[in-house]
Amino acid sequence: MTTILIKNANLFYAKQVIKSDLLIEDDKITQIADEINERADKIIDADNKLVAPGLVDVHVHFREPGQVHKETILTGSKAAAHGGFTTVGAMPNVIPVPDNVDDFKNQLELNKQSVIKTLQYAPVTMNETEDKLSPIEDLAKLGAMAFSNDGHGINNAKTMFDAMLRIKAVNSHLAAHVEDQNLFNKGVINAGPVAEEFGLPAIERVAETSQLARDLILAKETGVHYHVCHLSTADGVKLIRMAKDAGINVTCEVTPHHLLLSDSNIIKDDANYKMNPPLRSENDRRDLIDGLLDGTIDMIATDHAPHAENEKNQGFLKSAFGITGIETSFPLMYSRFVKTSLMSLEQLLELMTNKPAQIFNLSAGEIKIGADADLTIIDLNKSFEIKKEDFISKGMNSPFIGQEVYGQIQKTFVKGQEVYSI
Length: 422
Ligand SMILES: NC(=O)N[C@@H](CC(=O)O)C(=O)O
Ligand SMILES: [Zn+2]
Ligand SMILES: [Zn+2]
Known about the structure:
Layout: E1 3-13, E2 16-25, E3 28-33, E4 42-45, E5 50-53, E6 55-60, H1 73-82, E7 85-90, H2 101-111, E8 117-122, H3 136-141, E9 146-148, H4 157-169, E10 173-176, H5 181-184, E11 189-190, H6 193-198, E12 202-203, H7 206-222, E13 225-228, H8 234-245, E14 250-254, H9 256-260, H10 282-293, E15 299-300, H11 309-312, H12 315-318, H13 329-338, H14 345-352, H15 354-359, E16 375-385, E17 404-414, E18 417-421
Parallel strand pairs: 1-4, 1-5, 6-7, 7-8, 8-9, 9-10, 10-13, 11-12, 13-14, 14-15
Antiparallel strand pairs: 1-2, 2-3, 5-16, 16-17, 17-18
Helix pairs in contact: 4-7, 7-8, 8-10
The protein binds N-carbamoyl-L-aspartate and zinc ion (2 copies).
One zinc ion binds at residues 150-151, 177, 229-230.
């Protein structure tokens, strides 16, 4: 047996940060107490740093198979460990889309290269296109964490309705990239004065909100657990608030970038500000923050979307949609929300551990006796600059490069194994 004793932790335990020691035996947490003086193979003095459950991100893109020049499961998962994450949900917009038993099994095999726990979404429809539903029952049986066509909206209401019924029947979750493909209309930036100033084709807010309104009604009718990916609009927050009040089984995520940036921050033609959904207005951003603080929005997810340099330096019109996020999420959220007293550290940790785990029924996101030793040690007082060269991800496409932040990840453990150390 291998034992690790962590001394002098500021431990996030039972929804509070407390002074504590913690003992790991092999892959499990076996003791949590004021003072543990057991002999151990390794003793780590946490020196009053934060010891948190490994962070949970239900929305990442690891690009393998098919686009390994952007990211691989190995580089993506190492980047996640660098960001303090120990459990992630990988979206199925890889090539080929794992929309059948063989490709899904192959995807699960590939995911074994992950240094953290990489769970797999299955697509809602074949090849994430409109016409035909994927073999939902088979893919659920193989262990799909949930179903999503992320990257594309599901335009056809009948397709969505049927998908919801079948996903509900297997007791799974439907995570929706809510976007009407016709209203999206090949835009590249949020509709408004900034789009006009730059003369770029725009994405209307109604691309998100009209499909969301439809889906909420369908979710009410079917009872499926309907989860909204990367919410971006003020009206979207209102719709979800109303739906929750009406008892509809809806949950929702928001990304750090939609909380921290608006279209007014976009540097002309810098595609590190190009993603889908686009950065919206200051008004939308404020309402997303309100929605996060009042519980309308349930969790933070990064939508980590790595691309190669030459796919992102083509200006706003031609570059790919998406930015990396998994290595900067905690430091950015901690610096801009906790340090500024918009929320407590405990609130932020809930949004990045317990809440996503609970909502997707994952055994993750909580430090407790008997749980897997999935932990991260974070120095909250350490400030540093976000630098390209510090990314482990193959993707360097971040609008946050150059920003000064607090909250440096020092070590990350998965099942008692150190998967990142500074
Ligand atoms: N967010 C993005 O802009 N891009 C994502 C797809 C998605 O999340 O919709 C990608 O796969 O690159
Ligand atoms: Zn999406
Ligand atoms: Zn995505």
